[in-house]
Amino acid sequence: MGATATDHGVVVPYTHELSPLQADVIFQRALQGKANENDAILFTAHMLMEMARMSVEDGFVMQIHPGSFRNHNEIIFKKFGRDEGGDIPLQTEYTRNLHALLNKHGNDPRLTFIVFTLDESIYSRELAPLAGYYPALKLGPPWWFHDSIEGMSRFRECVTEAAGIYNTVGFNDDTRAFSSIPARHDLSRRVDSNYLARLVARHMSHALAYGLVKKAYKLG
User: Of 171, 162, 167, 121, whose CA–CA distance to 143 is shortest?
Assistant: First the structure.
């Protein structure tokens, strides 16, 4: 149908590979209505590994959106149903949780694996270093609560030193508020242009390539 990517809205980005027998045992328990919370965690972790394997095979881009407590406001949920804005960020962890997937597929040039997060504090601590190290991993744009001037600016400041620019994916949009899409893309372009212009205005390239060494060696 023309799609190029998959998207997985997991709560926790835990990845773990089960044996075929282990996966089947959990699946059969689920069919019988006997699966428990640990079964769900393990099976979801295994399915992320399977999705990565299949993305390597078929060339689809794999995206994950962890860390949202969906339908947090029960009154709104009961009155209006799902996806009415009562979704709140959760703290997430990636260094350990993505270890299995990145070690198996993160160095494979056939995989593009894009991670979004609502946990803004995790960008500089874990996601940017991981994206700078594993060729397959790219960072999705600032998402949801951070889809703003300040959020986009903080994102560039947090990730660029460790991940670089080419390990991010620019701006995309999956909003249901279709009329906002052009404005949001325009905002992203302006914020990124401002960030790049600020680097130029600080004369960083000139100083590194010419000014500092000339001054240090007293060349006039």
Answer: 171
How far apart CA 183 and CA 194 sit, in angstroms, is: 16
- pLDDT of 176 strictly over 90: no
| CA 135 – CA 112 distance, rounded (Å) | 8
CA atoms within 13 A on the CB side of 8: 24
Q: Yes or no: say if 94 and 130 are a contact pair by the CB < 8 Å rule.
A: yes
Letter for the amino acid at 104?
Answer: K
CATH 3.20.20.140 fits 5-172, yes or no: yes
Q: Is the pLDDT of residue 204 over 80?
A: no
For strands 113-115 and 61-64, give the pairing.
parallel
Q: pLDDT for 103-131, tens place per residue?
A: 999 999 999 999 999 898 899 999 999 99
Instruction: Tell me how many degrees the CA angle 112-88-70 measures, rounded to the nearest 5.
Output: 75
* pTM, entire model: 0.86
- The structural domains of the chain, with segments of one domain joined by +, span 5-172
110 CB contacts (<8 Å, ≥6 apart)? 56, 59
